[in-house]
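Hi C.,

You asked whether I'd gotten around to modeling the 92-residue construct. I have! Everything is below, sequence then structure, no commentary in between.
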Amino acid sequence: MNLERFQLQTCCGKTAVIFKTDSPLSKSLIEFLVNNGYKELQHFTAAGLIYVENSDFIITGPLGSDRVQIKCKHPVGCDEKLNNFELLLKTF
């Protein structure tokens, strides 16, 4: 999977990180992330949304879209964890 990373300024001085993909996202991405230690919130999936989390990130986005938003739960070390997450997504 080819990715582009964007950082957008949001309210209160925070930054949102968005990964844009080269293809629409499907439930197979959720399965891939679950197999790599993320927890799926199934009521979001039933509503057509990606919402998975682990101890470091909350990952959200609409199914069928070409982008996901990543929120770091802990700002310390977030950049390195985002780099690792990007490498993980590239193996999808």
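If it helps when you're writing up: The CA atoms of residues 6 and 79 lie 13 Å apart.

Thanks,
B.
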